[in-house]
Specification:
Elements lengths: L1 H22 L20 H7 L16
Length: 66
């Protein structure tokens, strides 16, 4: 019984740390522009961020939950 409680406790702590990591605000290294949150309804800010510096390569990754 104690082993089961210990395993459940470790699992709960792991889930808590994982959730904190995923939902915590992102940070960037010094000297890098801040992260941009793009609205899903308006593509204008995305186009402006994508076209901001034409001298560097750009990559767009699309992830779908399905």
């Amino acid at each position: 019984m104690k082993k089961k409680i210990a395993v459940l406790g470790v699992l709960a702590v792991a889930i808590l740390f994982g959730a904190t990591y995923l939902w915590a605000p992102g940070t960037v290294p010094a000297g890098q522009p801040p992260l941009v949150t793009l609205p899903s309804a308006n593509i204008g800010p995305f186009a402006a961020a994508f076209d901001a510096d034409v001298s560097v390569p750009r990559l767009v990754l699309l992830f779908s939950p399905t």
